[in-house]
Design goal:
By secondary structure, the protein is of the alpha+beta class. It has one domain: Alpha-Beta Complex (Nucleoside Triphosphate Pyrophosphohydrolase), CATH 3.90.79.10. Helix content is 17%, strand content 40%. The structure holds 8-OXO-2'-deoxyguanosine-5'-triphosphate. 8-OXO-2'-deoxyguanosine-5'-triphosphate binds next to β1, β4 and β6.
Length: 131
């Protein structure tokens, strides 16, 4: 089974968190789902270097990347995903959506209202518990 390793950012502005909606995809289980921005780690990159690159590519932002929050291993029908999520503080809500089709800044308690990619659910649960 194919394995993918991804980094993702929990972008916090005050008490709000950025939730970003993926574009339509032929993989229905991730198509238009909400996620934390990020992407695959490329050869030779550290996790934080990969996340910095992805955040610039996807949102035109360059935030401080803080501690690892949670690593999730999730089995999708076509691949096994390992996703490392990092807390990041941003000082502005101004972002440019270069790849996502929509975004919302939500309080922790509001996160469950979105249709998240399945791999994100443990991260969302932890964020809600620690609210
Ligand atoms: N970035 C991110 N990816 C997630 C999350 N949840 C989740 O299941 N994924 C999955 C969807 C994709 O299969 C994979 C991320 O791959 P991607 O295609 O977005 O990464 P990338 O930007 O490096 O894309 P590419 O170069 O392959 O086009 O991880 C999440 O919260 N954030």
């Amino acid at each position: 089974m194919k394995k993918i390793e991804v980094v993702a950012a929990i972008l916090k502005h005050g008490n709000e968190i950025l939730c970003a909606q993926r574009a339509e995809s032929k993989l229905e289980y991730i198509s238009k789902k909400f996620e934390f921005p990020g992407g695959k780690i490329e050869a030779g990159e550290s996790k934080k270097e990969a996340l910095k690159r992805e955040l610039e590519e996807e949102l035109n932002i360059n935030p401080n990347i803080n501690d690892l929050y949670l690593t999730v291993v999730h089995q999708y029908p076509d691949f096994e995903l390992t996703m490392h999520s990092f807390l990041c503080d941003v000082d502005t809500k101004e972002i440019t959506l270069n790849e996502h089709i929509s975004s919302q800044w939500l309080k922790r308690t509001e996160l469950l209202g979105l249709d998240w990619a399945a791999a994100d659910v443990p991260i969302v649960d932890k964020l809600m518990q620690n609210g």
